[in-house]
Amino acid sequence: MKALITGASSGIGRDMARVLAKRGFDLILVARRKERLEELAKELEVKVKIIPKDLSIEAEVRELYQEVKDEDIDLLINNAGFGLFGEFSKTDLDVELKMIDVNIRAYHILTKLFLQDMLKKDKGYILNVCSSAGFMAGPRLSTYYATKNYITKLTMAINEELRQAKSNVHISALCPGPVATEFNKVAKGTFSLREANSYKVAEYAIDKTFKNKMIIVPTLFMKLTLFMNRFAPYRLSLIVSYHIQKRKMR
Fold this sequence. Notes:
Elements: E1 2-6, H1 11-22, E2 26-31, H2 34-43, E3 48-52, H3 58-68, E4 75-78, H4 93-121, E5 124-129, H5 142-164, E6 169-174, H6 183-187, H7 198-209, E7 215-216, H8 220-229, H9 234-244
């Protein structure tokens, strides 16, 4: 078995590599930071191929696919991504456009290309690392929430298409709440909510992926939060979200 993981140099992506290595998967690890990938590869006792790529650049996303399309990948994990705290009127437009390229365009391209290959073989799994943000709007983290809405809903739609076709290809969306990763450092902010353990989230997500779960929510707190959000008026949900995102500029 072989898995490809984007954003594998830190956080959930790095821990997913560790979980899959323990299960005997050979790995293709993708991220911008080559030295981080090399460090991770040294600790894993499986075959590891590292591919440094900047997935904010469409040409490099397509290059990645061309480099690995003949590898017979069983599991694609789209995990690369980042956020940016701040009022929408004040945040950096260029950073936000780069975020859209990483969080949406790269996911969209890789999901489509690998899905087409998997359908030809009638086997395979895709796990898109989304967020509980994919079911909400997020004042003070607005662009990030919007990107996660796109990928969550896209994943759900593809899942139903595959289910209706009775396909042996499966796609899942991982939708955690705050996780202890480098997200806050990159996003220049902090969460007021308790952060989940990255390794436990990775382990839970992989277990549920292979059980063909469409929406994967790792913690009871976030399951309850998302359930209650279904019944909350939009304005109340926005007010709560605004105050939860207690921004702390660094």
